[in-house]
Amino acid sequence: MAEIIVVTSGKGGVGKTTTSASIATGLARRGKKVAVIDFDVGLRNLDLIMGCERRVVYDFVNVVNGEASLKQALIKDKRFDNLHVLAASQTRDKDALTKEGVEKVLKDLDADGFDYIVADSPAGIEKGAYLAMYYADKAVVVVNPEVSSVRDSDRILGLLASKTKRAEEGERVQEFLLLTRYSPARVEKGEMLSVTDVEEVLGLKAVGVIPESTDVLNASNKGEPVILEANSDAASAYEDAVARLLGEERPMRFTTPEKKGFFSKMFGG
Ligand SMILES: Nc1ncnc2c1ncn2[C@@H]1O[C@H](COP(=O)(O)OP(=O)(O)OP(=O)(O)O)[C@@H](O)[C@H]1O
Ligand SMILES: [Mg+2]
Fold it and tell me: Would 261 be classed as within a structural domain?
């Protein structure tokens, strides 16, 4: 069976799409057959981050409406043959997706032998976010180390435990906490919540901590998931998170401020 992983958050702009692209690419790099779906109808951002925006002809809504087949709409990644993108539509209204339509697409992907389906959720708790999480087996809850993001994530955890298919069937969606835009130096100065603070408030262990990094913007400008960047802490942190999602144990990195050497201290490097 295909495993459905929703990447969600309460607050907007915390790094869901960045995370969806990197997790999907990381799983594909490990040989899994992966589809990543943009549930953010009206905005269409995932295809930009994945670098396939010029190849979008048909989108998720077209498939749900029966205007295109899944095969026509799935865009094969240029880097990995086993990675596919289903883009969101830019023009239609937010109500274009239906529960039945989404279920059919997920079932068809399963029948096509996909191992993982990564659902990039829109922000908030409206219909799109609800549809993105409804069929999920696992949820990656993306949180920034600040109070408002943590508070809104708590609401999402409540929805995952009540408004999903698994919840309705008396089961659980397995939840994973992913901290992004983490700055150990600012945590040390007391300007940001620490990993432990966030873990304690939400009652979840972090599956990954992604540092604040200019590599994220650079990668997205190139249309490349940041996990593929060479010599990037953000890339390494995403790779660790993917490994942990697959059940491997890895020590947490990039959570303490970099120790400055003698020369950089002297010369402010
Ligand atoms: N680790 C990071 N370091 C620095 N910038 C980051 C990091 N992660 C994400 N960003 C930046 O944060 C912004 C929002 O990221 P992204 O689009 O992935 O968030 P989102 O949660 O999908 O947003 P929305 O709720 O609008 O869908 C982008 O400009 C992105 O480049
Ligand atoms: Mg997004």
Answer: no
Instruction: Give the CATH number for residue 232.
Output: 3.40.50.300
Q: How far is the CA of 151 from the centre of ligand 1 (A)?
A: 18
**Domain annotation covers residue 264:** no
For the chain, what is the domain count? Answer: 1
Any known ligand binding at 259?
no
pLDDT tens for 13-68 read: 999 999 999 999 999 999 999 999 999 988 889 999 999 999 999 999 999 999 99
Q: Which two tokens stand for residue 3?
A: 């495993």
Q: Is 16 annotated as a binding residue?
A: yes
Residue 133's contacts (CB-CB under 8 Å, 6 or more residues apart) are 6, 8, 119, 121, 139, 159, 160, 163, 164, 173
The residue whose CA has the least distance to atom 18 of ligand 1 is: 15
Taking the complete model, does pTM exceed 0.70, yes or no? yes
Residues with CB under 6 A from ligand 1: 9, 12-18, 40, 45, 122-123, 180-181, 210, 212-213, 216-217, 220, 234
CA angle 244, 247, 250 (to 5 degrees): 45
Q: Encoding tokens for residue 97?
A: 């997706």
Cβ atoms of 96 and 63 closer than 8 Å: no
Its domain, for residue 141, covers 3-246
138 belongs to an annotated ligand binding site: no
